[in-house]
Specification:
Elements lengths: L2 E9 L8 E6 L7 H11 L4 E5 L8 E6 L4 E2 L3 H14 L8 E6 L2 E9 L5 E6 L4 E4 L2 H11 L10 E4 L3 E6 L3 H6 L4 H11 L3 E7 L8 E7 L4 E4 L3 H13 L3 H4 L2 E6 L7 E7 L4 E5 L1 E10 L1
Parallel strand pairs: 2-3, 4-6, 11-12, 13-15
Antiparallel strand pairs: 1-2, 1-18, 3-4, 4-5, 6-7, 7-8, 8-17, 9-10, 10-11, 12-13, 13-14, 15-16, 16-17
Helix pairs in contact: 2-6
Length: 292
Amino acid sequence: MHNIPFKQVDVFTSTRFKGNPVAVVLRADALTTEQMQRIANWTNLSETTFVTPTTNKQADYRVRIFTPGAELPFAGHPTIGTAHALLEAGLVKAGNGALVQECGAGLINLKVEHRSDGHRWIWFDLPQPLVTPLGSSQVAELEATLGVEVLRQITPCLVDAGTRWVVAQLPNAEVVLSIQPDLQRMKHENIKDKSTGVVVFGEYPEGAPTRIEVRAFAPAHGVNEDPVCGSGNGSVGAFIRHSGQTAYFGSEFLASQGSILGRAGLLRLAVSEQTIQVGGNAVTCIDGQLST
């Protein structure tokens, strides 16, 4: 039997049990792909990460990311959670506030920032997204699946940034919180078009604590609803830029996610012509060892 350092980290929150948990296996050198997938299925979290030796000299660490049913080239909250776990364990240091993660999507730049609110924010650069508007029949199918109309003047898109999210803007945050999508129908469509899932967002009225509310559904990957999704929010940022709404939403704004599931996820989105950045806090809930 081998014992491997293990942490369970709550991401996009500074309050334990209010964000999105990720399991982080800190020294996974000896594990096979089959073992990693088995462990990810067992943790039954939306993602489990495995830290392995780098293959690129520019990287500070390498991570493999698994859902309960498949490996992903990239995902947002596992990226921030893994960086937090490694920093906390003293296994990496953020030289000049920067880290470089190696993963299936390539090299991901991260920024480690201590803000005046007293919390450490970890930001990642979304991999360069490819944005493809949906056709009219695809939009109709999406509306039937969601059970509501999307903003048709802002065409839903497939945003491919390592994960492949269908992103749709809804009339407002209240509608986002009200939907009850047909998850079996969504799963069928996601498998057919090889997408990760569907992300919807809508804005709050002026003066609200956050700018937008986000929800993310990935039934094809065994995750009916992701409580707080980093890559999904990054894809929203890419959608906002693609649809010419950057000036309207602002170059940096807050997004909330997870209240429908009893969570209180908080993310910062920074959108520019050069990069889409997603920032969040993280806090460790479990610190121990995994026996294999």
